[in-house]
């Protein structure tokens, strides 16, 4: 019985599933023109590498500036990008890869220049000291306080 179930399970898992792709081929650059609106759409190769490089040229300096100011505008930047997709300024097919590249570049630029404050940097040490000073040390002091010292 167990052998049949295992055999059936393996048989089902090994059946190839049908996948769907869009019509059209990619050129030697790794992309193609989208016929519905005439935009160029990347899929692989040099096209995606250039898109990533372009995203870093745009968003990395923005992230660096926000890092210097200490203002993390990541969520605002992301919502602005998606708003531009809804408006049609950024093509939806290009948004698939460009928005993730832009956000990654912004984040790396921000982390490149951001200097954390003392409390941000050492907050876990401060929490540990707080725990030690209020929960660990008083019971220890109480233990020694109740202990009688022999007199000679």
Question: What does this 3D model show about the protein?
Answer:
The protein has 152 residues and is mainly alpha-helical. The protein has helices at residues 2-14, 45-69, 74-87, 92-113, 118-146, and strands at residues 31-33, 40-42. The chain has a two-stranded antiparallel sheet. Strand 1 and strand 2 form a beta hairpin. The N and C termini lie far apart (85 Å).
Bulk shape: flat
Q: Write down the overall mean pLDDT.
A: 78
Helical coverage, percent range: 55-70%
Beta-strand content bin: under 5%
| Low-pLDDT stretches | none
Main beta sheet: strand number and arrangement?
Answer: 2 strands, antiparallel
Distance from first to last alpha carbon:
85 Å
Tally of alpha and pi helices: 5
The strand order across the widest sheet is 1-2
Order of helices and strands: HEEHHHH
Strand runs, count: 2
Secondary structural class: mainly alpha
Rg, please? 29 Å
Furnish the topology, listing elements before pairings:
Layout lengths: L1 H13 L16 E3 L6 E3 L2 H25 L4 H14 L4 H22 L4 H29 L6
Antiparallel strand pairs: 1-2
Provide tags for this entry.
single chain; 152 residues
Task: Give a brief outline of the structure.
By secondary structure, the protein is mostly helical. It contains five helices and two strands.
């Amino acid at each position: 019985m167990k052998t049949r179930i295992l055999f059936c399970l393996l048989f089902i898992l090994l059946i190839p599933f049908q996948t769907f792709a869009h019509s059209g081929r990619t050129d030697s650059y790794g992309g193609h023109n989208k016929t519905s609106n005439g935009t160029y759409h990347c899929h692989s190769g040099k096209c995606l590498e250039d898109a990533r490089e372009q995203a870093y040229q745009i968003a990395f300096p923005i992230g660096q500036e926000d890092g210097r100011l200490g203002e993390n505008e990541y969520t605002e930047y992301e919502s602005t990008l998606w708003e531009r997709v809804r408006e049609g300024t950024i093509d939806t097919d290009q948004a698939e890869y460009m928005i993730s590249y832009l956000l990654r570049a912004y984040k790396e630029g921000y982390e490149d220049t951001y200097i954390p404050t003392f409390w941000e940097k050492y907050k876990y040490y401060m929490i540990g000291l707080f725990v030690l000073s209020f929960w660990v040390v008083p019971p220890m002091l109480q233990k020694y306080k109740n202990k009688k010292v022999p007199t000679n």
